[in-house]
Amino acid sequence: MGEKKTTTGGGLGFYKEYVAGMNAGLATVAVGHPFDTVKVKGLYRGATSSFLGMAFESSLMFGIYSQAKLFLRGTLPDDGPRPEIIVPSAMFGGAIISFVLCPTELVKCRMQIQGTDSLVPNFRRYTSPLDCAVQTVKNEGVTGIFRGGSATLLRECTGNAVFFTVYEYLRYHIHSRLEDSKLKDGYLIDMGIGVLTGGLGGIACWSAVLPFDVAKTIIQTSPDKATERNPLKVLSSIHKRAGLKGCYAGLGPTIVRAFPANAAAIVAWEFSMKMLGIKRD
């Protein structure tokens, strides 16, 4: 069930994990991007970089997570979810994809805030995501495009560990109940389980890491090159000024987005794996 070995038929079949992950990423952006931009305005502004970044990021995340689980499980029996396998696999994948997400999200955030005239003067406007990236490197150096990297790393490692733990345990126990009740698996049942487990996993994830995301956004969109880049210090400053509520700014829209976006990701991932012949059960 949730933690049984994933098989791809041997040979070079491992690439299928990454294709399935890419499809999950595309589904995530298609469903979640409009909700995400509620926090910073501009609906689909910055969507191009989001689609490209998320497709690549999810391909890596789901692929690395699946392969790492296989490696860590080794010859252990398939007797249910194991946190000692799920957590390090998810954190390893999160650490890798943080290097992809940091620059793409910096571009997305800076493009999005241009939807609010009072925040961005005309002379600092970007004509496209590429222009934003080029101007950032030109004005802030190569390290500028990775501004917010520490916050992104903390968010991705923690968030993915929470997400996959909740997802795997829920999926395992729901399937166990279905087997006990003699219900047969079917497309609609699998999709419903995917919606529930992915959605609740997403809510748990963002409830745990939203403060890191708040710190990241502040660090990446600040016009001051000398702005504090330590996410813990940024959060400490926010807490002193606005309390816990300030650290969870945008919680409502984020939770509203988290369920459908992550539900879509899991449904797309699991459906893609089935179509590609990857067996998990």
Automatic annotation (TrEMBL):
The UniProt record lists the keyword Cytoplasm: no
Record flagged with keyword Transmembrane helix: yes
Membrane-protein topology: Multi-pass membrane protein
Taxonomic superkingdom: Eukaryota
Family annotation (InterPro entries): MCP_dom_sf (IPR023395), MCP_transmembrane (IPR018108), Mitochondrial_Carrier (IPR050567)
Keywords: Membrane, Mitochondrion, Repeat, Transmembrane, Transmembrane helix, Transport
Ranges that cross the membrane: 43-65, 85-102
Ranges occupied by Solcar repeats: 81-173, 189-275
Pfam families in UniProt: Mito_carr (PF00153)
Predominant place of localization: mitochondrion
Subcellular location: Mitochondrion membrane
Entry's family note: Belongs to the mitochondrial carrier (TC 2.A.29) family.
The protein, known as: Mitochondrial arginine transporter BAC1-like
Organism: Camelina sativa
UniProt gene name: LOC104786177
